[in-house]
Amino acid sequence: MDLLDTLNIAGSGLSAQRVRLQTISSNLANARTTRTDQGGPYRRKAPVFVSEQIDAFGSALDRELSSVRVDRIEELGGVRMMHDPGHPDADADGYVAMPDIDVLAEMVDLMTTARSYEANVNTVEVTRDMALRALEIGR
In angstroms, what CA-CA distances link 30 with 14, 24, 44, 62? Predict the structure, then answer.
């Protein structure tokens, strides 16, 4: 394993967490959206991450190293019915189909994503510092 592998792994983590952050932001922004272009209420979305092997031909450690990428964005959320007869999207019985998004759970996911992003940024910074120190030794 070398410094470039470390940067590639951390960079893939940064990219994946950015997508996760955008998805959470979309979920929070649409937590009360009852009508979308596809029809019906907004559905909660979440990215699906997959690992990718860095070096299939290296040492045993190199073969175990993986980067991460976003495979797809899945719609996970259902719909909950809320009684609001005055809402423009209410049915004949006064019920409105609302996105089943737990704002508190999304906020927890947001904090977890921010911490994961920070950890990857710290990895990049430490790797950069190690590379600079190695260059100073070589002078």
Answer: 24, 10, 9, 42
pLDDT, residue 77, reads 75
Find the domain containing 73 and state its range: 3-137
- pLDDT over 70 at 103, yes or no: yes
Q: Are 53 and 5 in contact (CB under 8 A)?
A: no
Confidence of residue 67 (pLDDT cuts 50, 70, 90): confident
Contact 28, 44 (CB under 8 A): no
Q: What confidence category does residue 54 fall into, taking pLDDT thresholds of 50, 70 and 90?
A: confident
Across 21-45, b (16+ Cβ under 10 Å) vs e yields bebbebbeebbeebeeeeeebbbbb
Domains in the chain: how many in total?
1
Please say whether the beta carbons of 35 and 92 come within 8 A: no
Single out the residue of 89, 75, 62, 84 nearest to residue 5, CA to CA: 62
Strand partners, 73: 47
